[in-house]
Amino acid sequence: MSRLWNYLVFQAWMSYLMAAGLLVFTSGFLLNRVSRPERAECARCTAASGDCDTAGILQDTERAAKVCLERRARVVLLIVDALKYEFAEWHDDTAAVSSYHRNKLPVIHELLQKHPSHSRLYRFMADPPTTTMQRLKGLTTGSLPTFIEVGSNFASEYIQEDNLIDQNAAGGIVFMGDDTWTNLFPDKFMRQFPSPSFNVWDLDSVDKDVQYRIFFEMKKKDWSLLIAHTLGVDHCGHKHGTQHPEMTRKLNDTNTLIKEIVASLEKDMMLFVVGDHGMTETGDHGGDSPNEVEAAMFVYSTTPLLKGFAINDDDSVNQIDLVPTLASILGTPIPFSNLGSVILDCLPSRVEEMAAGQLLYPLHSLWKNIAQTKKYIEIYSADTYLFSKEQLQHLHYIYSLLSERVKQVDSFEKLEAFIRDTKGYFKLLKDTCSEVWVQFDSGLISKGLLLMFCSLFFFYLFITGIPESRMCDIFKSSFLQCAIIANLITAAITTCLFLLNILEELRNTTFFVTGAVSVGLLVIVIAQNWDVISMCWYDHRRIKLLTYVARIILLLTVCGLFSNSYIVEEDKVLSFLFVTLVCLLIFDLRKNDPDSTSERKTRFTSKPIKTNFRTLVLIIGLLACASVRLSHYFWRCREEHLQRECSIFATGKVGWSTVPNNWERALLAVLLASVILASYVVIVRLWLQSCGNLTGFAPSVMIGQYCPVIVSVCMGCYWILQKFPKFVKPKLSLSWEINTLPNVVYFFCALAILVLYYRPLSIYLLPKKKESIDVYRDENIVPRLFEKIKDSISRKRIDTDELPVIYGFGTAYSAAFISLSVFLTLLYALLLGDILSPGTFLMFITCACVLGLSAIERYKNANSISELVDVSMPVLLCWFLLAEYFFYGTGHQATFPTIHWHAAFVGTGGHFYGNLVSAILIGINTFGSHIILGATLPLLVVVPFTLHRIFPKFLKAKFFDDIKRGELLLFEQDSAFHAAIFAIAGKYTMLHGIRTFGSMLAATIHCRHLMVWKIFAPKLIFEGLGFLVTLGSILASFYMVFRIDQQMEYLITRVTKSR
């Protein structure tokens, strides 16, 4: 038992080293932009004050940049989440009539036609990532977001940079709607009415709250900026997509709201209707496709807007341009870190102003904007040294020219010429910032790569080069204890140095220093055992040709990570490689017919197998290939899949449910998913019954007997209720009652997993028979007496101290892992939803086929117990490819827009206390294949003993005559068994680690590649998270073996004492 514990500790140590290398690397690769603490300030200047000469203000450009003109209007800012430009523009074609989302905002078209001088419509271009929190930061600070900030979309933090909200707080700000605002700007609003924002299945609550509050607030005079943020359109996109009647309803509601707000505007008010981002056809966002970045901005003013300052031919503006525009209208300083340029034809004019006054307002607004951006770049570059000397000199030269030309503007013609020059300045500024914005810490990147490589290399030497006997000697020594103590002391010293302000950073320093100490200890161990390691390296006789092919396939999967085309088409490539490897495995098993070969005279002898051996192997292999092929229907497309015919029903948003009054088809789909789910539960239940692991009243037996049935029934009912249309659902049950069903699933799955780890044995110890006969009333006991006498004669008075009878003891290991996989798979299926859940059944079938091929291969080739428990490289690579492939086979892609955010609302209703629950649910939905295949990894070692116990006639073998006892032999031969578990866990960890290291190296090489933030960086993030999840699941499976050994030892001790 202590040997297995040492294996577990060593595996955890290696997992820590690899995880530390990954985290150090990502800290250097995915850095945030440096925020500046400075705040912009300005002096008020009005014509009536007497202390400020507005007419000649621009003659002193430095002073003009520090002056704010008076407020021109109060602003109502209505943010319609995910208001795509396509929703707002008018389409005259016939296709718009039948569309669910086109021409549903006619109020915008009517105002543009009737009041062209009072209204504007722009293509409002968002900077990726197109997630709400990052867009709100851009809309309030005017700064460009960094890539990694997408990860904090649901963990809003207080914005510390200068922003519109802070600058206008003195004038009074009222907010209502999405509560993300109150997280970003706590205690900044004069009055606030936030609504929960994370429940994407709720289409109406937030919108109704806004509609109820906004008109009361508009009547009050104490505010300068009123912000209302509705979510119905965005939530409808997430839930149904754009092609759904609900999208029509939500856009109609938005149209009504805009119309009523316009009617309620007073003379000193302006309305800005903006979208923070767009959405794809399936309603997702987060990437940089045109559908996602093209939002809409509609402006309406009760007074005429400035005209003659068209932005460009397609009327597109950047979202950050809203910041200086609102600052100019409200008469406040432009936030310090703004990079946007003021939209001049959005500024309100005053009819009573003279020509000079109408010229001064846009010119001053523009110059103040130029001076603010120049000051920001100067201060930012002075601290970060990101901008080259040539870049700064060029910007300063253009700024000097503009500062001279602004003094000479005294007519609209000169103003228009000046505006054209400023466009070039702002374009150069944004391009320069975009070029240098992403900082890479080469030191941390190098440390992460070095630590990851050393961990993988020395772990490989340890596992493959040191034999079991020598490994036991290492673990019997104080090596592990010294390694743990050394790491703890190193971490403590690092922490003390940080607290004494000697070290500036704690986390990455601790990771790297402890990693360096650990690598040093590994080098010592490897050096001490180099004699046996070198002997193993030169012993190539055991390596088969198929093993070399498997290594080539692994190399292909790693090398492909350096190609953006491979990453885009990785689902196809992984499917092809898996099917290829399975076919090669089938060929290897069939090439030597067991019937035609003479029986080998070895200690381990296989009896002649029936003639259907080849057929069985072929059927198993074809079933695995067919399951993978069927899973193609659940593939989800990413933006780059332009030529691929994607299965749109995999999103669960379009298809049957878009047809009005045709929800019966959706119910049929749910029934099909429920039948497949029930079939899975029945198959596993029959298997466990045939093994004897559902007999008795042990906790794990009761869990396996009843919980899967309860869970599957609750899942089916939940899916059916979700598919009922709105007018039927309230009659059947309330919302909280529907959410109770998945909560029941969570409860029983969590309970089952805890019970399986606490009492993993699903066995039944048969009580000893007593010499008595129970007689029931009016029963004829003569037949029973006869049977009793007959039994006594046949036994010939055997000693009463008979051997104990234990049901399920021969499959104790496999039963625990099969039961664990059932509950993990059911939980995975629930979070995937009814549409994608059949993919989990296909994964189960494929895994079962791989296990069968693995068992047949080892019965065919093994000559000793150590070879029988040794899992070959091709089989292990199949298991690894399945974990990677079924990420795609269950409707996922390595892009942010394709994350299944809806999983966070299954059973929660969108109400969370923190982000832990939502992160866990989305994590299980995304990395379920990694979790399940990692947690059931020991089945690869156990399966030959399990199948021989169930199919003894087919898999006949003579192996000390002990193979008949099934998995009990593993407990008795614990040394070889534990070594095999350690070897397979280590090799499987290394397969994922090598692939993750490949992603890290590819991201480093392509850090300046055009597609780095679109393809390589997302792939790195998904691959890294999958690797961390796999490390945890492997350790969990290791611990399960440890618990089973403990329980079996306790049971055998108890039975022995009772005899």
TrEMBL record:
Pathway named in the protein's UniProt entry: Glycolipid biosynthesis; glycosylphosphatidylinositol-anchor biosynthesis
Descriptive protein name: GPI ethanolamine phosphate transferase 3
Organism: Temnothorax longispinosus
Pfam families linked: Phosphodiest
Spans through the membrane: 7-31, 448-467, 479-503, 509-527, 548-567, 573-590, 611-635, 666-688, 700-721, 741-758, 805-829, 835-856, 868-887, 899-924, 931-951, 1020-1042
PANTHER family, per database record: GPI ETHANOLAMINE PHOSPHATE TRANSFERASE 3, PHOSPHATIDYLINOSITOL GLYCAN
Gene Ontology biological-process entries: GPI anchor biosynthetic process
Keyword entries, A-Z: Endoplasmic reticulum, Glycoprotein, GPI-anchor biosynthesis, Membrane, Transferase, Transmembrane, Transmembrane helix
Subcellular location: Endoplasmic reticulum membrane
InterPro entries found in the cross-reference section: Alkaline_phosphatase_core_sf, Phosphodiest/P_Trfase, PIG-O_N, PIGO/GPI13
GO terms for cellular component: endoplasmic reticulum membrane
Tagged with keyword Nucleotide-binding: no
Topology with respect to the bilayer: Multi-pass membrane protein
An MF annotation (GO) of this entry: mannose-ethanolamine phosphotransferase activity
Family: Belongs to the PIGG/PIGN/PIGO family. PIGO subfamily.
Keyword Endoplasmic reticulum tagged: yes
